[in-house]
Amino acid sequence: MVIDNNRYLQKKSDPTAVQKEAIELTNYVDGMYDALNIQVVLTGLEIWSDKNPINVTHGSAGDVLNRFVSWREKNLLKRSRNDVSHLIIGRQAFNGAVGMAFVGTVCSQVHGGSISTLNGDDVLHHATVVAHELGHNLGMKHDDGRCPQSYIMYSTDNGSKNFSTCSANDFENLVLSGGGNCLKNAPKPSDVFTEPVCGNKVLDKNEECDCGTSQECTNPCCDAATCKLKSGSQCAEGLCCENCKFKVAGMECRPKMNFCDLPEYCNGTYPYCPDDVYIMNGYPCNNMKEYCYSGVCQNFDSQCKSIYGQGARKAPDICFKIANIVGDRFGNCGMSGGKYNKCPTEHSLCGKLQCTSVSLGNLPATSVVINQDGVSCVTSDFNLGSDIPDPAQVHKGTVCGEGKACVDFKCVNATELGYNCDVIQKCNDRAVCNNNGNCHCNPGWAPPFCDKSGYGGSIDSGPTHIDTSLRDGLLVFFLLVLPVIILIVIAVVKRDAIKRKFCRKSRRQRRNDDRQQPRQNNGPNHSSATNSQLATKNSGIFTISHFPAP
């Protein structure tokens, strides 16, 4: 959570009072989300006590929101990891809008943010505003026309403290579509801003687990009374915790979603999956024709499909030029001061998305069709409310020309996407660079610089190889070494008995040979005297027998 300088001054420049208000506000919001089984935790608090690093007075709520998420991406996330950030501004509403948020962008480093305005001391009421905007980040749309207006996600501020079934379904859809991966990891105790209390479902300092009160707790690994792990348990929750034990190092905990994404693995000693990492922004993808941005290979066709269905694709460039130079709700390059911006012709591909071969169906939007050269170009206004940015704007990082990409409604050199990694020098040309600037080594090479043999991955992803050395060692010991040791011990213990048994067998064999010797000599076939002599000598009896000549 970020508190702007205006709010800091409203609280008489008292950082303790600001922190207390932020914690109180978060606790109220957390209580509202409890019914959805969502835990809201304050993992960082930044107070702009000197001055605001972004302009929060000029322009519309959308302008300020865009400035905030841009500052978050370039500044805040490098210092403080978070699933979503919220800026509280000490001022009156923006033309009636008390807040604004991107929809379904929790976990996004680019758009994972929201803002709200607070100009009084009614913290409980403002908590409903924050809960509303956070709901948008979690994929929740307005309840208007779907559910009754007496819930948090209704478009008009009504002070409700409860979520509707529509909101619950929206959040479930976000999770099922893979949009909330970062929500599965609990924050580190050292990152939590709260009063430490056992039983509040927040992992505070000196706690090993916290599953709620004794009446609420259903976790078999955690002792609710002490917030300590039960005997024999290594962990109580997390993607790398199973049956109260750490998963083995190298077990994949977050798979690669697409070309621009990277997988993460358990390290064998920690219950949570490493932070989500992906290929550095600006890396070429799709046969060097497009660019990775925020873990996705950005292109017009995929954006059209996400809105209009699988058959949709990018409209011809002329459709973008015709629509986006107008500067209305169906064609623009964003908004400033509550008014739509006209796109200069050279930037028209970076404004409102224009698609063809669409399926409008039950699309909750107003659409217009432009017929150009026999092609029907479609653009839509979703009219989601004053607190939600237009979801039909071309994404940042989308190719708009040879070596160019869209950045903030402008078609600029693709170098502005921020790719700055020399894999030849840094990674020995055996890796790609992730969004932290570290080498993600190819299989066969070890991080951090891919200069030694190994199993691939990066220092951020966790070990990519399942460590079976202990298992293999135990198998060798129990299947090979232990049986040999047992045989040796038996041989040593029983050596006298074995020796006696062997000696008795040898004496018995000699006696049998003595009895059989005369019968052999009187048989019908007789050997020569010399042979007879040798035979009897070899048997240990030194007698010479004489036989008459035939």
Automatic annotation (TrEMBL):
Q: Quote the PANTHER family the UniProt record gives.
A: ADAM A DISINTEGRIN AND METALLOPROTEASE DOMAIN, DISINTEGRIN AND METALLOPROTEINASE DOMAIN-CONTAINING PROTEIN 9
> Where is the catalytic site?
133
Q: Which GO terms describe its biological process?
A: proteolysis
What domain of life does the UniProt record list for this protein's source? Eukaryota
Query: What Gene Ontology molecular-function terms does this entry list?
Result: metal ion binding; metalloendopeptidase activity
Q: Which residues form the Disintegrin domain?
A: 195-281
Residues in EGF-like domain copies: 417-451
Subcellular location(s): the record lists: Membrane
Question: Keywords assigned by UniProt?
Answer: Disulfide bond, EGF-like domain, Membrane, Metal-binding, Transmembrane, Transmembrane helix, Zinc
Q: What is this protein called?
A: Disintegrin and metalloproteinase domain-containing protein 9-like
- Which Pfam families does its entry note? ADAM_CR, Disintegrin, Reprolysin
Q: Where is the composition biased (Polar residues)?
A: 523-532
Please give the CDD domains that the UniProt record associates with this protein. ZnMc_adamalysin_II_like
Mainly resides where?
A: membrane
Cysteines joined through disulfide linkages: 253-273, 441-450
